[in-house]
Specification:
Number of helices: 7
Radius of gyration: 47 Å
CATH architecture of the largest domain: Up-down Bundle
Number of domains: 2
CATH topology of the largest domain: f41 fragment of flagellin, N-terminal domain
Number of strands: 11
Structural class: alpha+beta
Strand order of the largest sheet: 5-6-2-8
Largest sheet: 4 strands, antiparallel
Helix content: 55-70%
Distance between the termini: 23 Å
Order of helices and strands: HHEEEEHEEEHEEHEEHH
CATH class of the largest domain: Mainly Alpha
Shape: rod-shaped
């Protein structure tokens, strides 16, 4: 091969043909891969920048699964709260039935004044109760103890207005004596001790304890059983409101990371929303739902539980909104990063196809030129023979 001598024109055409072949190979590779930058040799700056963008997009993409699970944890908790609210409302309806059913006692606790105290139109007539006399009744059924100092002009209605805070009512019997009786709210309670400075109250005749009504108490006992069944379901529902092992209604904590650096995070602390956590206790037949006070006490606890559920539902809704917004943001950011990477490395197929066609034409021309150059060289050699 060292003995072969090429003319300048042939050598130039060979070099041009080699260059064209190399460019054509590169163009065809770009078309095959779809990339104009396939390695750092093609364009170091674009290659490594695109690689960094793709790596970040991949890292953020890996976080999307965790964020998606976080959304499901919050939705599971929210579903649980919705069910708990329905159960609490059912428990309220049971407690309200107690208020609507027949009084649980055929006879309530009473006490009667020792002497006549006056006509119904004017309780104090100046004979048995004087200006400055007192009446005391110990706290009855959780009420406020009574301590009255008479002025001499009180009516029966005025007396009852004062006694209401102590779950006691007053009436005059056929003999004109004052009878103190527990109200329906405290029907299960024994009237507190009655006393005072007036002659009518120094020797009060105390009545017997309340007499339970068997039929009514049977109904109330049944309502206690129904209520306790709801309380059990409240605890069971709270325990079941979990997703992937995390239960925000059972004091678990949900921790979410939103960016690849671990600096953007959200920590959601759960609550304990079983029956005990909501301040709801099972009732005891024969001790609870005996009268209105017992039912109202339960309704107060249920109302507080409803308030807690609504507050937590609002908090969960806010956190769910935050997580979903960040989830959408991350998805859009991944698209931005991948698009940026593509802009740096992807080939324009229309442009590359045109380049390929042009290079093919150029290659054909170079081959023809090489042939002509070689033919001219051969013609000169023929002349020398």
């Amino acid at each position: 091969m060292s003995g072969i001598v090429l003319s300048a024109s042939v050598r130039q055409n060979l070099l041009s043909l080699q260059s064209t072949a190399a460019l054509l190979a590169t163009t065809q590779n770009d078309l095959a891969t779809g990339n104009k930058v396939n390695s750092a040799l093609d364009n170091p700056t674009n290659f490594f920048t695109a690689q960094g963008l793709n790596n970040r997009a991949s890292d953020i993409g890996n976080l999307l699964d965790s964020i998606g699970n976080g959304v499901q944890v919050l939705q599971a908790a929210n579903t649980g709260i919705t069910s708990l609210q329905s159960l609490v409302d059912t428990a309220k309806s049971i407690a309200n039935q107690v208020l609507q059913t027949t009084v649980g006692y055929s006879a309530k606790s009473t006490s009667t004044s020792a002497t006549v105290v006056g006509p119904a139109s004017n309780l104090v007539d100046g004979v048995n109760i004087k200006s400055g006399d007192t009446l005391t009744i110990a706290a009855t059924g959780g009420g406020t103890a009574t301590n009255i100092t008479f002025t001499g002009s009180e009516t029966l209605d005025q007396l009852n207005a004062t006694l209401a805070a102590n779950n006691v009512s007053a009436s005059l019997n056929g003999l004109g004596k004052l009878v103190f009786t527990t109200t329906n709210d405290a029907a299960s309670s024994t009237l507190g001790a009655v006393g005072g400075t007036a002659a009518a109250f120094t020797a009060v005749v105390a009545g017997a304890a309340p007499t339970a009504d068997a039929a009514s108490q049977a109904i109330r006992s049944s309502l206690v059983s129904q209520y306790n069944g709801i309380i059990t379901q409240i605890s069971n529902t709270a325990a079941d409101a979990s997703f992937n092992g995390i239960n925000l209604l059972n004091a678990d904590t949900l921790k979410l990371t939103f960016d690849e650096t671990g600096k953007s995070t959200l920590s959601i602390t759960g609550v304990t929303f079983n029956a005990t956590g909501l301040g709801l206790n099972s009732l005891v037949s024969g001790q609870d739902f005996l009268d209105n006070n017992s039912a109202n006490k339960t309704l107060t606890a249920l109302s507080a539980a409803s308030t807690s559920l609504r507050t937590e539902a609002s908090s969960l809704g806010s956190n769910l909104s935050i997580v979903q917004i960040r989830q959408d943001f991350n998805k859009n950011l991944i698209n931005v990063l991948q698009t940026g990477s593509s802009n740096l490395t992807l080939a324009d197929t229309n442009q590359e196809a045109a380049n390929s066609q042009a290079l093919s034409t150029r290659q054909s021309i170079a081959v023809s030129a090489l042939a002509l150059s070689n033919q001219a060289q051969q013609s000169v050699l023929q002349l020398l023979r």
